[in-house]
Amino acid sequence: MQLTVNQKTHEIDVEPEMPLLWVLRDELGITGPKFGCGIAFCGACTVHVDGVAMRSCSVPVGAVNGAVTTIEGLGTPEALHAVQAAWVEHQVAQCGYCQSGQIMTAAAFLATEPDPSDQQIDDAMSANLCRCGTYPRIRLAVKTAAQKLKGA
Fold first, then answer.
1. Topology of the domain comprising 82-151
2. In this structure, CATH architecture of domain 2-74
3. I need a surface site. Which of 45, 54, 55, 101 has the fewest CB within 10 A?
């Protein structure tokens, strides 16, 4: 079966029921998406499939119809995505474990809601858990990224 990840097509030989997360991590060596809960609750495994945020721990690879983007494919070291740049600017990460999922959720959210209110940000981002409690910084970074994206 073929799977396009971060604009690169891979030929993979796995069972279609295998969760996308394990294909990414174990078969392709892409470690940005993290295993957190395994039941699509925490958001540490969030990736984009054709721009839509999805929990890769609960999506069978055989059900993936579209291009997958992980945190590794969101920006480049030379040109970070606006959300990544805002995360750095506001020093959001503490332990960092949830951050790739947080960033992927925020990027997908801002693609559909370019001028969000605080409540919309809180609602969208509450689907991802942060044990360090950096939620105020997350909200600020999402607001900053929204401004950067509007100016781009």
1. DNA polymerase; domain 1 (1.10.150)
2. Roll (3.10)
3. 54
Q: Which residues make Cβ contacts (< 8 Å) with residue 38, sequence separation at least 6?
A: 57, 58
Residue 128 CA to residue 41 CA, distance in Å, equals 7
| Predicted model pTM | 0.95
Give the separation between CA 106 and CA 94, rounded to whole angstroms. Answer: 17
C-alpha to C-alpha distance for 86 and 74, rounded to whole angstroms: 14
Cα 79 to Cα 8, 62, 121: the distances in Å are: 19, 32, 24
pLDDT exceeds cutoff 90 at 64? yes
d(CA 29, CA 18): 15
Instruction: Evaluate if residue 152 carries a pLDDT over 90.
Output: no
**58, 49 contact by CB (below 8 A):** no
The model's pLDDT over 68-98, given as tens digits with 9 standing for 90+, comes to 999 999 998 899 999 999 999 999 998 989 9
Residue range 123-128: mean pLDDT, rounded: 93
